[in-house]
Specification:
Distance between the termini: 57 Å
Helix content: 40-55%
Protein name: Tripartite tricarboxylate transporter substrate binding protein
Family: Belongs to the UPF0065 (bug) family.
Shape: globular
CATH topology of the largest domain: D-Maltodextrin-Binding Protein, domain 2
Strand content: 15-25%
Strand order of the largest sheet: 2-1-3-10-4-11
Number of domains: 2
Organism: Ramlibacter pinisoli
Largest sheet: 6 strands, mixed
Radius of gyration: 21 Å
Number of strands: 11
Keywords: Signal
Order of helices and strands: HEHEHEHEEHEHEHEHEEHHEH
Number of helices: 11
Amino acid sequence: MPLSRRTLVAVAVLALATGSAFAQAWPAKPIRLVVPFPAGGSTDIVGRLVADKLAQSLGQAVVVDNRAGAGGTSGSDVAAKAPPDGYTLLLGTSSTHAIAPALYPKLPYDATRDFVPVSLLGTATILMVVHPSVPAKSVAEFIALAKARPGQLMFGSTGNGSVSHLTAEYFKSLAGVDLQHVPYKGDSPMTLDLVAGRVQVAFGTAVAFLPYVQAGKLHALAVTDAKASPVAPQLPTVAASGLPGFEALQWFGLLAPAGTPREIVARVNAEVTKALQLPEVQEKLQGLGMQIVGGTPEQFGAFQRAEAGKWARIVKDSGAKVD
């Protein structure tokens, strides 16, 4: 028997009231923050800082759950399939929510439909660095060297499908050079092999590379920002070094499983916004080479869609594949 209009309205009102009551009672237990990369890397450091500040403001523990693997897609899939009850959050990145959808033919999650954006945290400066044994002091000299030695120079990345991998593929495509890919499982092992000279070039975050650059163990050629970076103002951009239009960002943002109540999303966004304004948080993130962004969930969603479109074009134009 069909329900009357009055009954349908009553059901809708009850559902809204129940959802509102649930959101008001939240959080009543610890929250899990899935970080889809290994402990110790830049993504993990950002995740633990956010978890600590959210725990303080929400009055509940926020437990970091490192789920590394497959360029961050394994952990992202775990978060996508979690109950949308506000007790699972994901620290998404340009790798997991902009690059992976274009690179992996059978991604186990939909980066747009399976998540709701919560807050963009910030972007991190990416450096192009070489081992000191490489006889190139500029991007132009490196391109000339790579063209003279096709297939002989190796680039390291933090994993298949990572932003460091695709930034190098983007560089190869625009510069017309042949470099061999050596994927690692995170920042630390890749940086160690780069310092040891087992790979010759890499694109990675300033927090991973700058200490070695300052110690003379690596040589920085450029940044991949569209304009000079405040993190390394002495370095030129790749775009100004012979590859006009080149730009690559590493970004970090909080997401939740699709269906998470809007009131909870708004609450987490508000707490993150307050945390990003704290001097100690700004100092820590800037020390990681990040530029703080923040903003509304809607702004983050628009940013993510634009980034996904850009990386889809890069993947297509470069012919990049997962090794």
